[in-house]
Structure formats: structure tokens, C-alpha cells
UniProtKB/TrEMBL annotation:
Entry keywords, A to Z: Gluconeogenesis, Glycolysis, Isomerase
Gene: gpmA
Protein name, as recorded: 2,3-bisphosphoglycerate-dependent phosphoglycerate mutase
Family: Belongs to the phosphoglycerate mutase family. BPG-dependent PGAM subfamily.
Organism taxonomic ancestry: Bacteria, Pseudomonadati, Bacteroidota, Sphingobacteriia, Sphingobacteriales
Superkingdom, natural source: Bacteria
Annotated Pfam families: His_Phos_1
Site feature location: Transition state stabilizer: H165
UniProt-listed GO biological process terms: gluconeogenesis; glycolytic process
Keyword Transmembrane: no
Residues involved in substrate binding: 18-25, 31-32, 68, 95-98, 106, 122-123, 166-167
PANTHER family with a match to the protein in the record: PHOSPHOGLYCERATE MUTASE
Length: 212
């Protein structure tokens, strides 16, 4: 794809970023809707992301109601020297619910239920873990919010930063990149690494870059 000048306001920029490493990421536990903060490494990842984004003129930021995403965003904005931009917090950007699995160690859960079953719960598109959400369920709350609240900002030529979670971002990436359920199942989103989309005013993606 052709690299475009992000300051050309014929185009808009959307930056997606998964929060820095959380305590339960470190402990290999299912987190979901549990409100777990980031680790020291997570803070360092957020700081690094801020350094990578210093040249972006971020106009508005969106994040979830969970502290690991909000803490990451706070560090990024401080490192970028960004003050007084709108920061919108909404539960529809929260991580998918893992239901009965939340708090359980992933390796122990695989021993109990079988690694194949756990992988289906973790990565399939439309199979939910017991008491939780599938990626399809997550997309059903993320995408309407994106279209109603975030897309209009992009259509104005804004640079938008979303700091959220692995699965809420996977739902959005699936839409933006036109990925199949099979393709999204194999998509990994690392913590603290910005993914930048340059779009035209019709929200057609013209360029995708990973900053690291």
C-alpha cells in the first residue's frame, strides 16, 4: 500500500492499542471483565507506546471502563505531552467476558477440559466459554459503538486512539481488515504495540502499519 501523509486531512488516522501487560497476563489467567491493573512491564510497554506515538496529533481517545486500559492510556498521553483532549470511557470497549473461566489459570484449565476445547473457547468466532461471550458477541457490542460514536470522528479527519483489549480490538480488526473467522482466530495482538490505520473519508483503509 502507498504510504500516505497522516497530516493531510483528506485522510483520517485510527490507532488501536492493546493495554500493557496486566498482572493476570503475567500469571497466565483468564481476565475478561475482571478489573486487573497493569504490571511494571505493562507500564514500560505503555511508556514505549507513548514514545512511538509522539509524532501523532491525537485528537480524541477512547478506552474501556477497565483500569488496565485506562492506566495504559494515561501513561501514553503523558509521555506524548497531550493534555485536554477528549477521553471517552465506555464499557462497550471492554474485554470479552470469559464467564466461569475468569481467574483460572489457562494451563490448568487446558488440563481439566482439554487443550482443544480451551482453544475453541479462546479463539473461535462464535463459541462462548461457559457463562461468557464469544468473539461474535463481543463484536455485536463493539461494532455498533464504533459506527455510531467513533466513525463520525474519523469522517471529520480526526486522529483517533483506542486503547482497549485483545478481543474487543480483534472484533474491530476483523471488520476493518475484512478478516474471516479463520483468519481472526490466528491473529495475535501484542500488548503495548500501536496498530495504525490510514483511511479516506469513506473509512476505506488505505494503509496499515505496526509501530514497534
Amino acid at each position: 500500500m502507498t504510504i500516505l501523509n497522516a497530516v493531510d486531512k483528506k485522510y483520517s488516522v485510527l490507532i488501536l492499542l492493546r493495554h500493557g501487560q496486566s498482572l493476570w497476563n503475567l500469571e497466565n489467567r483468564f481476565t475478561g471483565w475482571q478489573d486487573i491493573d497493569i504490571t511494571k512491564k505493562g507500564e514500560e510497554e505503555a511508556l514505549h507506546a507513548g514514545k512511538l506515538l509522539k509524532n501523532e496529533k491525537i485528537d480524541i481517545a477512547f478506552t474501556s471502563t477497565l483500569k488496565r486500559a485506562q492506566h495504559t492510556l494515561e501513561i501514553i498521553l503523558k509521555e506524548c505531552g497531550i493534555e485536554n483532549i477528549p477521553v471517552i470511557i465506555d464499557k462497550r470497549l471492554n474485554e470479552r467476558s470469559y464467564g466461569d473461566l475468569e481467574g483460572l489459570n489457562k494451563s490448568d484449565t487446558a488440563l481439566k477440559y482439554g487443550s482443544d476445547q480451551v482453544m475453541i473457547w479462546r479463539r473461535s468466532y462464535d463459541v462462548a466459554p461457559p457463562g461468557g461471550e464469544s468473539l461474535k458477541n463481543t463484536a455485536q457490542r463493539v461494532l455498533p459503538y464504533f459506527h455510531k460514536t467513533i466513525a463520525p470522528k474519523l469522517m471529520e479527519g480526526k486522529t483517533v486512539l483506542i486503547v482497549a483489549h485483545g478481543n474487543s480490538l480483534r472484533a474491530l480488526m476483523m471488520f476493518l481488515e475484512n478478516l474471516s473467522p479463520e483468519e481472526i482466530a490466528n491473529t495475535e495482538i501484542p500488548t503495548g504495540i500501536p496498530r495504525k490505520y490510514v483511511m479516506n473519508r469513506n473509512l476505506q483503509v488505505l494503509d496499515i502499519t505496526m509501530e514497534n
